[in-house]
Amino acid sequence: MAQYICSQPAWNWRRHLFGEFSDRSYASNANQSRAAAQVTAWAILNDTSHSHAYRGSLVVPDSRNVSTNSRAGGPRIKGSLSCMKVDDYVIITNGTSTQYLIRIGPEEYSAPPGEPLATVMVGAGMAVARYIWVSSALERIPNATRTSDDVMSIALCTHEIYFVEDLEGVGGVQDINPSVPLTPGCSIEDPNVCASDAVNKAIINWWGGSDRHFLGLNCRGSVLGPLPSSGFFDEDNCPLTEVLWSETVTSMLDGIVQTSSNTTGITTQKLTVPGETVNSRRWWLQALIPSLTLVHYIVGLVYTTVISQGRNVLKDLTLTEIIGAAQTQYIRALLDSEALAKAVIQYECQAGFIVPYSPRARKRHVEKSTSVSETNIV
C-alpha cells in the first residue's frame, strides 16, 4: 500500500485581502467597516460557523464549492490577553455626578461610573494593542483594581494577535493550502504577522479607534464588541477572558476574508490518494497470475495450430454418417420408445434417410420397398 500526493490548483483566493488594512495609520476605512458589519451580523444571529467559513484561517470559504471532505490548511489565528492592576486613578465628584480619572503615564482618561463593560485604547504596535478596561461588575475583568468606593473595576490589558500552525492531524480529510496574503505597506517580512496586524487595526477601529473616550461593549454570539443589546445583560455571561478575545479575533479575520476585494489568484489542495504498489519481496506472487495467463494462451495457440495442419482436401461423408450425426439424444429416445416410427428409403443408391410415420403409413411403404433391406440406423 502506498500514498500518492499531488496539489490541485483549482480554488480562488483573494490575493489583496489585507491591502487596505496594512496602512500604518489607524484611521478606519471602508474595508474595515464592511468586515465589522459582517462580524456584527454573525454575532446578532449567533452564527459561530461564520457562514460555514474555514474559521480562523486564510482560506477563502468559496473554495468549498469545488472541494470534497476538506478542511483549512495552514496557520490559524489566535489571541492572547494579559491584564494588570491600575492604581493611579482619582475619583472626582461634582454634585450628583462622579467621574473616574485614570492616569496611564502622562495621559489621563475619564471613565463614567455604572458601565457594565467599557474600554478605550491607550496604545498599539504591530499586532498588539493596550486597552483600559472598566466595569461596574465584580470579577468581569481579570486582575483588576477595585476602586475605593467599591463602584468600579479598572485594569490595563495587553491584547496580542498571532498565527499558529495547526499541528493536529485529522484522518480522512483533505487540507486546502492558502496562498500567502499580500500586505502592501507592511514593513514586516512575515506575511502572517502583517495579517495579524491588519486584524488588530480592524478591531481597534471597531472598538472606537484612537478616540480617548470609553466605549461600552456587549457580548453576543461569543464575540465582544459594540453590539446592540439583546435586552438583558447577565453579569456572568461576558467575562473578559482569553477565550472571548480569541473568538473575537477569529470572527474579525473571517469577516475580512469574506468581505475583501475580489481580486483572485490560486490556492491549492493537497490530495492524498491510497494506491497499491508492487512488493519487491514477493515479486513471484505478483507475477504468478499474468504468467499463468500467458502460458495458457501459448498452449492454446500451439494446439489449434497443430490440429489444423494436414487437411488439404475435404472429407467425403455418406448420407448415413450425416443422418447419424444429426440425430440428437432426444430423437433416439423417441425411436427407442416407438413414439416415433422410422422407415428406410433409398436416395441415389444410399439407404438411411429416416422419416416419421404412423404404423399404417409405415406398412404401405414397406410393401413398396420390399427390395430394400431394412437397416436400423441410430
How would you briefly describe this protein structure?
By secondary structure, this protein is an alpha+beta fold. The protein has helices at residues 30-45, 191-206, 242-259, 283-307, 319-326, 329-336, 359-368, and strands at 2-14, 70-72, 75-85, 89-94, 97-104, 107-111, 118-125, 128-135, 145-146, 153-165, 174-177, 215-216, 218-220, 223-225, 264-275, 345-347, 350-353.
Q: Care to count the β-strands?
A: 17
Output the structural class: alpha+beta
If helices are DSSP runs of H or I spanning 4 or more residues, what is the number of helices?
7
Helix content: 25-40%
Notes on the structure:
It is a single chain. The chain has 378 residues and is α+β, with helices and mostly antiparallel strands. 27% of the residues lie in helices and 29% in strands. It folds into three domains: 2-275, no CATH class; 282-312; 319-368, no CATH class. It contains seven helices and 17 strands. Strands 3, 7, 8, 9, 10 and 12 form a six-stranded antiparallel β-sheet that branches. The protein has a four-stranded mixed β-sheet with strand order 1-15-11-2, with no helix packed on it. Residues 1-13 and 368-378 have low confidence and may be disordered.
What brief labels describe this structure?
single chain; 378 residues; alpha+beta; 3 domains; 6-stranded antiparallel β-sheet; 4-stranded mixed β-sheet; 17 strands; 29% strand; disordered N terminus; disordered C terminus
